[in-house]
Amino acid sequence: MIEPRLSAEMVVQSLLRKVNQEGGFGVVLRKGDRISGAILIICLEKGKDPRLLEKMPSLDGPSTWQMIRPQDTEKKQDLDEYLKRRTGFDPDLWLIELDVPDAERLIADMT
After folding, report:
1. How far is residue 89 from each of residues 21, 24, 27, 83, 100, measured CA to CA in Å?
2. What pLDDT is recorded for position 23?
């Protein structure tokens, strides 16, 4: 049975609104499919320490946000190359950037 879910666009808008309420900054870097596009989130704190999260399916329950790529700030080009490959492979992908303290907690609280 397919579980009901919000559209990708609504999830993105909700995340951006919540980050703004928390005093952070969020921006859409790439718009994907409005209904079912995958969402990648680059999480930053004061412009540093980028982490990449994606909602992944789970075998024993609902999907959860998981870190798929921690990144050294010295190797930003590795993250850029990964994102370029990923968006080439999946043109329906959303890419958003959130700059807020403890972004992972904020994202988890929304699900």
Report:
1. 33, 30, 22, 10, 29
2. 92
